[in-house]
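Quick one:
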Amino acid sequence: MKMKTIYYLLLLVLGYGLVSCYDDKSTYDTKEIPNVELDLNGVSETQYVAYLGKLHIDIPVKKNGTPDHPDLEYKWEIELSSSAGLREVLSNERVLDTIASMPIQASGYTLTLEVTDKVSTLKYYSVFSLVVESQFGEGIIVAHSRDGETSDLSLIMDKDISKGFTGTEKIQYDDIFTSKGEPLGDWIDNVAYTVSGATWSTYQNILWMAGKNGLFRADCRDYSFLETGKIIPFVTETYTSGHFYLAPQTTILVMNNQVYQHLRQNDAIFIKPEVISDLGGLQSNYVDNRVVAAATGDGTHSSGSSIWYDSQVGRFGRFNGAFSQNKCSLYSSSENDDNFPFDPSAVAGKEAVAGGFMNSSSLVMVLKDKVSGEYSIYTFFTKNQDYTLVNPTPSYLYSVPAAIKDLLDRSVSICFSTVDPIMYVATAREIHAVRLNIDGSLASSLKYTAAAGENISILKFYTQGRYNVNSEDFDSDTESLLTLPLNTKAVMMATQASDSEGYVYLIPQKDPGTGNLDEEKQVKYDGFGKISDITAQGR
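Output:
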């Protein structure tokens, strides 16, 4: 922007003043108009700022050669909507120093600096285009609470978990909704990252959140959010609980222990698939303890591959695929095979403990007998021996020995390696790796002990957010989707030193295939309150 642009008003005023003087030189006093200068050297006409980032513009201003003259006052004003005439004053200081909380806009807002000489009442202007961009990249989302009643989100970005990250502040965005002035007003139990859109080029990065009182959908560009009524508009029953799971081509919501599905093309709406009628006449679509095992990462190119345990009928249920005619079904006795290690239609008297995707091809469910308290681990192949995709097929039944039963009894969190036959079991102080062997045996070993004064609350296997959605998007010509070195090679852990002091750890694996964790290379992130969930956000 050239300096002469700020003198247009002055020239008009000078011109008018000269004509007036010429008309009647004897009547009016002539006064020298003060010289007010706005130094725009090196200041771009277009200013770029990250959404919720720091907006800092320093324009030196002088009056008669004196900087920061007391006769001058300032107003930074932004035009939020030209059609509605909506404007907002951002600052009355010479230096604009504020948080860019206005909505993301690539075309740019009109930002104006108005300088007023209080003595002469003359005004001077400098006009900019302000482009607000989203800088929320991939990383780890932390749902946590400062007051023990309501939750907020913080985003960790770091070189090991954010492609192209070069910053120094690891907690890149803290308490996102509070900083926007839009608190959620709910305690968040569960957060899941996925995408929404008809094609790769139209995908939007979104977060699904399940709270104590309702559901939320947040757009990762600016974390604007929708609430329950926009997400399940056709549901009349009262919300009591929810949990989201990524599944091939869809997202599954377990609400009030019932299955709902979201097609990526449907933007925000979840719908309830058909109700399953059991042969005995009982209608059921029940998910015990909200536990679902769903294929992610390398398993997401299949059409189905999601299972759960229906304790009302004592059977496993499955999601057949987003585009299947019968989207949900219970395993029936007619599907059982003498070669199966268990009959998926006859598993009565259990409760679901944990579920997940393991070893690039297996769905795993951990069930506990309601009477004896004994555990069993059920696995289902999603690929046959020729690596052809199949409906989830019973593959192994593991009886749990006493030592591992003790671990499961004391467990606070369980997760599965998506690339190895490893189940990680976290107790309050330790992480153990349980290997599921092909001979039907289990072997466990201690892999990690938490720092003194901290207790483990959450453990998850680390995979990049977009890799979880569809691994086939990666390592193509899209530079931003190249996999990071720790993708599928680390675990994420949350610990608490107190209800107001939470930590997040990223712990790399070592010795591939063993489940060993490299404590020396772990990275610790602090500054959180009571952590209720963590998840990997993609880009």
